[in-house]
Amino acid sequence: MKRSLTQVGGWIEERLALSPLISAFLDRKIPAGVGWLNTLGSATMVTFIILAVTGIFLSMNYSPSPDHAWDSIQYITEELPFGSLIRGIHYWAANAMVVLVFLHMLRVYFMAAYKYPRELTWVLGVFLLLLVLGAAFTGYLLPWDQKAYWATTVGTKIAGTVPVMGEFQRRLLLGGTDMGAATLTRFYALHMLVIPVGIALLIGGHLFLVIRQGISTPPDRQIKDRNDAR
Ligand code: HEM
Questions:
Q1: 91: alpha, beta or left, given left = phi > 0 and alpha = psi -120 to 50?
Q2: Which residues of the chain fall below pLDDT 70?
Q3: Residue bearing the CA closest to ligand 1, atom 26
Q4: Helices 119-141, 195-213: crossing angle, 10 deg rounding
Q5: Which of 14, 66, 108, 151 is the most exposed place for a label (fewest CB within 10 A)?
Q6: Where are the domains of the chain?
């Protein structure tokens, strides 16, 4: 078994020569003192992958129209084989992603990892945070039940209070002056297409920078190194 796997690996490697790419990605030197807190970014990324996979299955059975959205969710939960499990995983992974992205940001902030030369990594991170919150907000409406309806009413009203462009923003989100079919399809398109593609592209840029610049040395380690050098 192991031999045939090695042979398959060798066959692919001979044609694609992927190993320099893989070692650039995985075999990186990391500074001493880096620990569990540095896994929060990767954990956030894992939740994103889980959401993308479960989201594909959900989108195959969900109908984004006011007449059928709620029924299709009922169908997924009650009748579709493994539907309730997939929906549950999607729900909990979404909650976990929001918590993890905040914890990751706090780790970066308190370890001052946003400082030179990592300012751009931070800026991409801010956009990632906004998109993650946008995904959570747009996903909340999709079950099209009372909770979803009123949460989105409140959310879009808040968006409408922004000075100057608030009303335009609210209408853009709602697809009109009130919530209806256009709102649901708009939120669905944002939730399963626009936002995930945006997140995937930004994660690509974010990781490129992390690999290019390397992980920052934790502050306590920097102090220790400085004292040792004296
Ligand atoms: C979908 C959301 C995000 C994903 C998947 C993600 C992923 C990652 C990964 C895998 C790393 C390298 C390992 C680590 O330090 O944890 C990293 C580092 C970093 N991230 Fe994120 N991140 C996200 C959001 C954010 C946010 C919201 C910020 C800040 C606003 C941010 C700022 C940074 C910075 C500055 C680094 C470099 C840290 C260092 O060199 O020590 N990231 N990110």
A1: alpha
A2: none
A3: 125
A4: 160
A5: 14
A6: 34-213
CATH topology of domain 34-213: Cytochrome Bc1 Complex; Chain C (1.20.810)
Dump pLDDT digits (tens) for 110-148: 999 999 999 999 999 999 999 999 999 999 999 999 999
The reported pLDDT for the residue numbered 33 is 87
CA–CA separation, 156 and 184 (whole Å): 13
Q: Using most ligand atoms within 8 A of CB, pick from 108, 115, 213, 220 the residue to mutate for ligand 1.
A: 108
Residue 182: its pLDDT value, please?
96
CB of 199 closer than 8 Å to CB of 128? yes
Name residues contacting ligand 1 (CB within 6 A).
38, 40-42, 44-45, 48, 101, 104-105, 108, 113-114, 118, 121-122, 125-126, 128-129, 132, 199, 203, 206, 210, 215-216
